[in-house]
Amino acid sequence: MGKLKKKTGVYYLVNAVLTAVLFTVLFLLISGKTLNNYWSGIVVLVCINVVLAVSLNLVSGILGQLVLGHAGFMLVGAYASANFTRAFVTNGSMSLYVALPIAMLIGGLLAAVFGVIIGIPALRLRGDYLAIITLGFGEIIRVMANAKFLLPVTNGAMGLSVKTFSSRTDPGAIFVFAFVVMVLVIFISYTFGRSRHGRSVIAIREDEIAAEAMGVNTTYYKLFAFVLAAFIAGVAGGLYAHHIGMIDPSKFDFNRSVEILIMVVLGGMGSISGSVISATVLTILPEVLRGFADYRMLLYSVILICVMLFRPSGLLGRYEISLPGLVDKLLHRKGRAKTEEA
User: What counts of helices (H) and strands (E) characterise the chain?
Assistant: First the structure.
C-alpha cells in the first residue's frame, strides 16, 4: 500500500513538472511574440475547447447521458461574466486581472443554476429524449439572448462587447488564465472519475438499475455530474467571451454543441486524455487546412468519417494516457525480458 501511494505521488510530481514545462514554453513563445497574435489566439482557443470537451465528457462519457445543449451553458456563462466585467472594469473600479476570475466564477455558478433547473426534469429521461430536451434548452437560451426584453443584458442580435487584455501590453495574460483553468478542470475531472463519487457515476453508466439496487443515489449523482459539467461550461464561456471580445448569440447554436460532442466522441467516451487530444486536433486542424480553402471542410469531414469507421470507440476508447505510467511499463517489460533471457 505504501509503495502504491509513493508511486502515485511520483506520477503526480512528474505530470506537474511536465505541465509546468509546457506552460513555460508556450508562455515564452506568446509573450515574446515568437507566435503571432493569430496563433496565440488559436492556442488560447485550444485551452477553451479542451475545457469544454472535458466538461461534456463528465456527462456523455463518465455518466453516459447524451447531451446536445452544452453551448447553452457556455452562453449563460459568457453573458454573466461579460456583464460583471462591464460593470466593474469599464468604470475603473476593478482591474481586469482581479475581475476576470470572479467573472468566470459567477458565470459558472449561474450556468450551474440553469443546470439544476433543466437537469431535475430532464434527467428523469434518458437516451434520445434527454438529448432532445437539452437541445431544446440550448436553442431557448440562444433565442432569449436575441430577445428584445433582455436587450440591456445581452444587447440582442447585435452582440455584447467585452473588455479584453491588450495583445500589445499583455500578450500572454489571457493565455495564463486559459491554461490554469484547463489544468484545473483536467485535474478535477481526473480525480473525480477515480473517487468514490466518480465510481458511483460510472456504475450508473454501466447499469443504472443495478447501481440503485446497490444503494447508489442515482438521482443525486446524475444531477451532480450534470451540474458540474454545466458549471465548467459556464466558466469556459466566460473565458471565451473575454478572449474573443464580442459575444454573438449565433456562435452558441446547435452546431457549437455538436462540435463539442464530436470532440468527446472522437477522443473516446469516458477518456479525459482522448478529449484533450481530440479537442486540440480539431481546433488546430481547420486552421492548418485553410490553405486548401475549397477542400478544407471536405478533408475535415473525411478524416472524421474515417476515424469513426475504423475506430468507433474513439481514438483512446476509455483508456487514459499517463507518460510516467508508459515509462514504468516500458522499464518493467525490459526488466522482464532480461530476466527471461537470463
Answer: 14, 2
152-159 contacts at long range (C-beta below 8 A, 24 or more positions apart): 153/79, 153/83, 154/79, 154/247, 154/249, 157/249, 157/250, 159/246, 159/247, 159/248, 159/249
- Within 10 A of 152 (CB to CB), how many other CB atoms are there? 8
Which three cell numbers, joined as nine digits, stand for 119?
A: 437537469
Q: Which of 23, 323, 26, 318 is nearest to 183 (CA)?
A: 23
Q: What is the pLDDT of residues 4-27, one digit of tens each?
A: 555 666 777 878 888 899 999 999
Segments in 89-207 forming alpha helices (H): 96-122, 128-145, 151-154, 173-193, 196-206
Full-prediction pTM beyond 0.85?
A: yes
- Inter-CA distances, 182 with 49, 103, 142, 233, Å: 9, 16, 25, 11
